[in-house]
Design a protein that fits this description.
The protein is mainly alpha-helical. Helices cover 71% and strands 0% of the residues. The protein has helices at residues 11-30, 33-42, 48-60, 74-104, 109-116, 121-135. Helix 5 (109-116) packs across helix 6. The longest helix is centred in the middle third of the chain and has 31 residues, at 74-104. 18% of the residues are buried.
Length: 136
């Protein structure tokens, strides 16, 4: 039995609780175009992968900030780091669905391996299996 207040915090649970505030922070501060319109009309935040890309591009200097847009700061980077597992899971689901569509349309594992830049059909099957386990 643990004593309340003496149990170490669960970092993953804490990160999950920060997810929506992280998305809203990055959207409020850095959304542009359609993302900005959706935020102002419906307070709908950017997709995690879009928020990460925008933050990384601004921080690296490869994107120009909009007029009046604040610089990327410590809290923006913390928000982006918070979103990485969510974006990775989103990307894994996308990749797995593409693999299923490719197989469903008659592509061989060798074809898929070539498309993914892998050396063998076995490597493509193993990747499929890893993605299946991670997305379950």
């Amino acid at each position: 039995m643990t004593t309340p207040g003496l149990t170490p915090p669960d970092p993953e649970k804490a990160r999950k609780q920060r997810t929506y505030p992280a998305l809203t922070r990055l959207t409020e501060r850095h959304a542009t175009g359609e993302d900005r319109i959706r935020w102002e009309a419906d307070t709908r935040p950017m997709a995690p992968l879009d928020a990460l890309r925008r933050t990384a591009d601004l921080a690296a200097g490869s994107a120009e900030p909009d007029t009046g847009e604040p610089d990327v700061d410590h809290d923006d980077l913390m928000a982006a780091l918070t979103l990485l597992p969510l974006a990775r899971a989103e990307f894994d689901r996308l990749e797995l669905s593409l693999l299923h569509m490719a197989k469903g349309r008659g592509m061989t594992w060798q074809d898929i391996a070539f498309g993914l830049g892998l050396g063998s059909a076995q490597a493509a099957r193993q990747r499929h299996d890893r993605l299946t386990r991670r997305t379950d």
